[in-house]
Write a structure and sequence with these properties.
Elements lengths: L10 H7 L5 E3 L9 H13 L12 E3 L11 H11 L6 E2 L1 E3 L5 H24 L25 E3 L31 H31 L2
Parallel strand pairs: 1-2, 2-3
Antiparallel strand pairs: 4-5
Helix pairs in contact: 2-3
Length: 217
């Protein structure tokens, strides 16, 4: 279904028609990819028994397109497919960038350690609560740590060196492999396709030259 931006076709329709599908790819469908609508439709189908929980063999679902920016419904979308599949986790080809600025990394670690300490204290005090009333420990207040929520393709890689990108091109503007300045995903993938085309053309030319040489050999 890649590159087929047809409203009459959707991953959900394909799974209804072909319930034994394990992998489904529906990339580059900008106009007809809507995670919120799909979630509601799948929930309605589960509610009325059209699809039953834990019955689909789906393992992987590709839905990425170049115009994805922020997707607030990604977690709910992931959980919905996990609920429907016979597998515990359905693999998606998108995820959030998750980049954390350097000045917030230490703060996040401090927050996690403090929360862990609070949990340990509560566990230690549980048995005492059976005999006396203890005021719950207040949570320590921290400034919210904001990780980047932009959508990235799990397959994103540098067109020049093949380095696999972990974060979006706006958060990390230089390639971690070759230090080349990164370009938007669509332009990056176009360069990858162009590079592969040139490599294939070169291979064909070399093979043609070898054939010509063998004639005179």
């Amino acid at each position: 279904m890649d590159d087929s931006d047809d409203a009459d076709l959707s991953p959900i329709i394909m799974l209804i028609k072909f319930p034994h599908l394990r992998k489904l790819s529906a990339r580059n469908r900008k106009e007809n990819t809507n995670l919120e609508v799909d979630i509601k439709l799948l929930q309605e189908m589960m509610k009325f028994g059209s699809v039953k929980i834990g019955t689909l063999p789906i393992e992987k679902l590709n839905i990425y397109h170049y115009y994805m920016d922020f997707e607030p419904h990604l977690l709910a979308y992931q959980k919905t497919w996990n609920k429907l599949s016979i597998h515990p986790h359905v693999e998606l080809d998108i995820r959030t960038c998750g980049y954390l600025p350097e000045d917030q990394k230490e703060e996040e670690l401090e927050r996690e350690l403090s929360l862990l300490e609070q949990r340990i204290q509560r566990l230690q005090m549980q048995q005492d609560r059976m005999h006396q009333r203890i005021t719950p420990l207040p949570d320590t207040e921290y400034r919210q740590v904001n990780r980047c929520q932009r959508i990235v393709s799990v397959d994103a890689q540098c067109w020049s060196c093949g380095y696999n990108f972990e974060h979006c091109w706006k958060c990390v503007p230089l390639c971690g492999g070759c230090n080349l300045k990164r370009i938007p995903p669509m332009a990056n993938d176009n360069q990858i396709r162009l590079k592969k085309r040139r490599q294939n053309d070169l291979k064909k030319q070399i093979m043609a030259d070898e054939d010509d040489f063998s004639v005179f050999g």
